[in-house]
Write a structure and sequence with these properties.
The protein is mainly alpha-helical. The protein has 20 helices and three strands. The protein has helices at residues 3-41, 45-57, 67-79, 87-102, 108-128, 132-145, 150-162, 166-178, 204-213, 228-241, 245-258, 263-275, 279-292, 297-309, 313-326, 331-343, 345-353, 359-389, 394-406, 411-423, and strands at residues 186-192, 198-201, 216-223. It is elongated. It starts with a helix and ends with a helix.
Amino acid sequence: MNFKPKIKHMKTKFITLTLSMLVAVGFAQKKEIKSAGKAISSGDFKEAKASLEAAKAMGADNDEKLKEDYYYYKGQAYYGTGQNVSTEDLMTAAEAYKMAMDAGNDEAQAGIDQVRASLVNGAVEDQKNESYEDAAKKLITSYNLNKQDTIYLYYAASNYINAQDYDNALVYYTELKNLNFNGSETQYTAVNKESGETESFPDKTQRDLMVKSGTYIKPSTETTPSKAGEIAKNIALIYISKDETDKAIAAMEDAKAANPGDANLLQAEADMYYRMEKLDKYAEIMQQIIAADPNNPTLFYNLGVSTAQMGNADKAIEYYQKALELDPAMSNAKINIAAVYLGKEAPIVEEMNGLGNSAKDNKRYDELSKDREDIYKQAAPYLEDYIKDKPDNIEAIRTLMNIYYQIDDPRADELSKKLKEMEGR
């Protein structure tokens, strides 16, 4: 009869002891979190991190009553003052603030906004320092904190391209394509009367107010081109680098279907086929582009380049001349025309060197000599114009000098003297 009361008494003591331990642990968690808060207030972020680690070891990060404060303080501890914060700490702070918000902490949104601003500013500095991978990581984190800001996803992918991390670039460019990201922006600008510089404004209202105040003039509103073409082109180029041309073409077709009539996409498609060395397809698409924009000199210049590579010299010259007609200052078109003309010389010289000494061969030699001289005379004016634009181009001057000697032009000696001066002889 005395045995049962003893068992009951033992159970009561055991339960009381367990409850006491739970209360002690909960008190310790709160104490560490409170210590972290005090350390943050005094600017001792290292001590705050240590207190939070101790609280985590006791399960504070999973305690429904405590984790709101735990994650909020963690965000503050890892963000610190926001100065000279590592990428890893900024990303930790961002995730902590997000967890605090999910746990019901409304103040965490301000922390998230601070972290996002620091991430973006840090990414800008990373780009300047050519730390492209760090810039990309910061921009991805910023995007994940607010997925409405898809522009940061675009900049992250671009930074991965610069870092030559094409696999990650492909992941984020593909995500942008799936989101039908356009990236076109409306820019509101005006000229500062004092500095004469064109400045941008966040919206039309603010721009118009500054113009109305009299400190700014010449308001302008411009819409930047869609980035869909660039994204599709980069996806295609990455696939081409992986020797997956079918995927490159499929990605381009998808982009065109999602953005019908986008001229930038059509140019991207032409560039893709150019990289694939399918120059006939490239030329076909370029003709479509020119039909839509017949006064664009760059289009004719690009067609001149591809047509020359396909071996059609006369047509290439025609395209280059059209580019110059639209833009007389296009120096590259001038020297490329000269190069195409001079490229006709090789087969002539080869035939001349293969001739014998018969009367027939001598006659043919004289004919070929005349053809060669005609080539020089056709190329010379374009080189002359090019040198006016680029007077320090030694190779262009040397080429023109040699042409002058071949055609007995007295200006050859003048160029020879100039060339010696430039080379310090």
